[in-house]
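I am still getting used to backbone structure tokens and would like to learn alongside you. To get us started, please write out a protein record for me. Once you have written the record down, we can walk along the chain together.
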Amino acid sequence: MSPLRFAFVLPLGIQALAMMVDELHFHRRRGLAAWERIGHPLDTMTVLACLAWVLLVAPTPRSIAVYVMLAIVSCVFITKDEAVHAAACGGTEQWLHAVLFVVHPVSLASIGLLWLGVHASEDAAPSWLRGVPATSIVVTQLALTSAFCLFQILYWNLPWARSRRPSPTR
């Protein structure tokens, strides 16, 4: 993988790894209250909106402004649970959330830069994007994020998940 291709994928990989640790370790250990069971898939949906926008709409000054607003809304929206997390999470989980807060806008910026290659032919793409499979990266990210959102909805909100009680321990 070329260094530039790696640079676009690295923040997405860091975000995915941190989300997996958060979801599969911390959330399962402590359980999620209703607010988080509903809110976490909504967080993911704000990312899906950004990804869908990049795939469906060509970059123009107006559509770029819309993407920037979608990205800002996503970055602010994901912080909504911090009052709950302050009471429910231990220090390591809170540190992991801080990592996620840092990498989230970097991931959305990476997707935004790839957008230029999604809607351009190979010879019309900026020279720094030539050879980078922009569409494949964004489509893969959309598919993985959609699957993760579906997991969050089904795992935490179907009857077998409702019997779980959030743990008061950290």
Q: What stands out?
A: Residues 53 and 153 are 22 Å apart (CA to CA). The longest helix spans residues 3-30.
